[in-house]
Amino acid sequence: MVKIGIITGSTRDSRVNLQVAEWVKSIADKRTDAEFELVDIKDYNLPKFNEPIPAIMSQDYQAPEAHAWSKKIDSLDGFIFVTPEYNKAVTSGLKDAIDYLYVEWNHKAAGIVSYGSTLGVTAANNLRLILTVPKVATVGPSVAMSLFTDFQDMSKFHPAPYHVDSLNNTLDDVVAWSTALKGIRQGVLV
């Protein structure tokens, strides 16, 4: 059975991101085809990315805080990224968390749940592009939510019921791709 991490995309104290990630997990936990775990990037206390050499070259140069992050991402087979949109992009905290690692992301699948004033679509597209470098395959189905209709006062998450179907479509593909890519990572054709 594959392990899928639901990755938060914000570290701000006033974030609504955790509410969205918890909703994703509540839907995902009804499934029996994978294990799902909430992975809050804020818990890892990663400093701003400022490593002397790229992570692709050597993990020996990682900040000490990145070692636990590395172990967590390495233990997962796929991901659901929950990203807000800040200035038409992902947050710097999420970008830094991705940049700290390289091989730990390789040949895994990801789905995207985004939200923002314009549904977080630009952030989702930005994230798809970012994830190509560490060889993460992003699935086509995604969930895009509005700060104006899926949140009360932009602070309390109340998703429209139809988002459940979109999320299940995303989860279907992430589980399928994660299962296939796990075989590839193990050198086995499935």
Automatic annotation (TrEMBL):
Q: Which family does it belong to?
A: Belongs to the azoreductase type 2 family.
Superkingdom assignment: Bacteria
GO: which molecular function terms?
A: FMN binding; oxidoreductase activity
Q: Which Gene3D superfamilies match?
A: 3.40.50.360
What is the name of the protein in this document? NADPH-dependent oxidoreductase
Q: Name one GO cellular component term.
A: cytosol
Keyword presence, NAD: yes
Q: Where in the cell is it found?
A: Cytoplasm
Coiled-coil residues: none
Where is each NADPH-dependent FMN reductase-like domain found? 2-148
**Keyword Hydrolase part of the UniProt annotation:** no
UniProt subunit comment: Homodimer.
